[in-house]
Automatic annotation (TrEMBL):
The GHMP kinase N-terminal domain, residue ranges: 56-141
Catalysed reactions, as listed in the record: shikimate + ATP = 3-phosphoshikimate + ADP + H(+)
Gene3D superfamilies: 3.30.230.10
Family: Belongs to the GHMP kinase family. Archaeal shikimate kinase subfamily.
Domain of life: Archaea
Lineage: Archaea, Candidatus Marsarchaeota, Candidatus Marsarchaeota group 2
Protein name: Shikimate kinase
Keywords: Amino-acid biosynthesis, Aromatic amino acid biosynthesis, ATP-binding, Cytoplasm, Kinase, Nucleotide-binding, Transferase
Length: 275
């Protein structure tokens, strides 16, 4: 038996980081991840070399009532890993869709998102399940969520603008768990309220400053981006990447301002649906 499938998901940027409160928001970005799978009849345990992907494959096959199968997969991604650009959420979305495709199963978006959150928590890659990131990657637009309930609270489209990511040189991801305090939670909830009422640029700006300060990342890239024409800029995820929204007329200026700081990736807002 040899069954093949393919799945695609987009990326996202942070509007409000949910790690301190369990409530967050994210915005779809037009960077893509494609996963192709071959499901093979074997007696061996599923193993992809990644704890997260192993969990996804094992749990999904169990859910479908098929066991003792091997999964061979390939990943094509435009999203760098482990810098806060939602690569894990995007890959899990695409893998779930690819496995479903291989087994001839149709899934609703809410099923994909519930599985993504469950498997991400089980694998230990997300404290909250990150359904905000998963939803923005899968469906596009702005997705405001209550991650404690794995629920989308509000959805709306963002203005069509360029998205610019900065991965700064010499800045590594921090251990943030000990840095979450009452002040951070208060400010994060304020940013969440802004996202709920449609003021997502203000939410990005507030979230960016408070998390960069709390986690010990430089605030200068955010300040510089705003001076160079970005309408919003903040830390993406738990860093170290920054993400800015900018209109086309100011794109070149922002790239020049950030050019000496690190690697730049230019994309655009994604408001469509991957399903």
């Amino acid at each position: 038996m040899r069954m093949q499938g393919e799945g695609v998901s987009h990326g996202a940027m942070t509007v409000v980081n949910a790690v301190s409160t369990g409530r967050g928001a994210a915005l779809g970005v037009d960077l893509k991840v494609k996963v192709k799978v071959n499901i093979l009849e074997r007696e061996t345990t599923v193993s992809t070399g990644s704890t997260l992907l192993d969990v996804v494959c094992k749990r999904f096959l169990e859910r479908m009532g098929v066991n003792g199968l091997g999964v061979k997969l390939s990943i094509e991604s435009e999203i760098p890993q482990a810098v806060g650009m939602k690569s894990s959420s995007a890959v899990v979305n695409a893998l779930i869709l690819a496995l479903a495709d291989a087994l001839g199963t149709k899934l609703e978006a809410k099923q994909v998102l519930k599985m993504n959150a469950q498997y991400s928590r089980e694998a230990g890659v997300s404290i909250t399940g990150a359904i905000d990131d998963a939803a923005a990657c899968l469906l596009g637009g702005i997705r405001v969520t209550d991650n404690t309930q794995d629920a989308i609270v509000k959805s709306y489209a963002a203005k069509e603008e360029k998205v610019v990511f900065l991965i700064p040189k010499g800045v590594t991801r921090v251990d943030f768990k000990s840095k979450i305090d009452a002040s951070l939670k208060h400010n994060a909830l304020t940013a969440y309220t802004l996202a709920l009422i449609g003021k997502y640029c203000e939410a990005i700006n507030l979230n960016g400053f408070v998390y960069a300060h709390a986690f010990g990342y430089p605030e200068e890239p955010i300040i510089l981006a705003r001076r160079c024409g970005a309408v919003a800029c903040g830390l993406s995820g738990n860093g170290p990447a920054y993400a800015a929204l900018v209109e086309e007329e100011n794109l070149k200026k922002l790239i020049e301002c950030w050019g000496e700081i690190g690697r730049i990736i230019v994309s655009r807002v994604y408001n469509g649906e991957a399903l």
